[in-house]
Design brief:
The relative contact order is 0.15. The protein has a seven-stranded parallel sheet, with helices on both faces. It is of the alpha/beta class. Helices cover 47% and strands 15% of the residues.
């Protein structure tokens, strides 16, 4: 890699928080950010997955630190923000990845299940951003803005319910809109806000989609022009772009990272 390329894509010395960063897409993002030289705090509910991630990445260029966290409650969001405020002088990158999936027929969707999805997928990212804003703006400049990357979904872009994932699809569509609104409001404070809307990547959540709709896995694989599901290089590489100097001029974008699935369906 040339010096110029290293300048454009290096995250050496940057500090990031990845919520839900020990499993699925979050783990793919965590590994790639650490490989790029970033110091990553992984917030996750699973102590086993978090400590395993921390140990696995002990010898790579960046660093990984696990913080046990449950963002499904207001207290959990506040506790994570307080932990970081006490231990960090600044936060350069926030990846809002923690989320949950639920699908049920229209008649079987309960208020409790609806609220659980919206709470973790939409409410938690908003109030975490609110609480961490002082850290995000601490060393942000016009030339080197802080970055917020919200993980949305093609489920928030497509019209189908995917087997009754009503709350999930609505929560992700709302995250996309929240991304645009925050990008507009936070640009004067030197914080870029973008969203990635992943298609089908290996994760527990994707397995939930496939379990909810028999035959969906094979159908999707046939429908994706790339003829494969997403990889660590795909989601991790795009996140590095958004968070590095190469992506410093981009804010307010929602990118469908789906191998061409949505475009092919049109």
């Amino acid at each position: 890699m040339t010096d110029r390329s290293e300048d454009l894509f290096s995250l050496a010395g940057k500090t990031a928080l990845v919520t839900g960063g020990a499993k699925g897409i979050g783990a793919l993002i965590t590994r790639t950010l650490v490989d790029a030289g970033c110091n990553v705090i992984v917030a996750a509910r699973s102590a086993a997955a978090g400590t395993d991630m921390e140990a696995t990445l002990a010898e790579v260029p960046g660093r990984c630190r696990f913080v046990a966290s449950d963002l499904s409650t207001t207290a959990g969001v506040q506790a994570l923000a307080a932990n970081l405020s006490e231990t960090l002088p600044a936060l350069d990158i926030l990846v809002n990845n923690a989320g949950t999936f639920d699908a049920a027929p229209l008649e079987a969707t309960s208020a409790e299940r609806w609220d659980a999805v919206l709470t973790l997928n939409l409410r938690a990212p908003f109030f975490l951003i609110q609480a961490l804003l002082p850290l995000l703006t601490a060393r942000a400049t016009a030339a080197e803005p802080a970055r917020i990357v919200n993980i949305g979904s093609i489920g928030g872009l497509m019209p189908q319910s995917n087997g009754g994932a009503y709350a999930y699809g609505c929560s992700k569509a709302a995250i996309h809109q929240l991304t645009r609104m925050l990008a507009s409001d936070l640009k004067p404070r030197h914080v870029n806000v973008n969203a990635i809307a992943p298609g089908y990547f290996p994760s527990d959540m994707t397995n939930g989609f496939f379990a909810a709709v028999p035959g969906l896995r094979d159908k999707m694989l046939e429908s994706i022009p790339a003829h494969r599901f997403g990889s660590a290089e795909d989601i991790g590489g795009f996140t590095v772009f958004l968070c590095s100097r190469a992506g410093a001029y981009l804010t307010g974008s929602i990118t469908a990272l789906d191998g061409g699935l949505l475009t092919a369906a049109q």
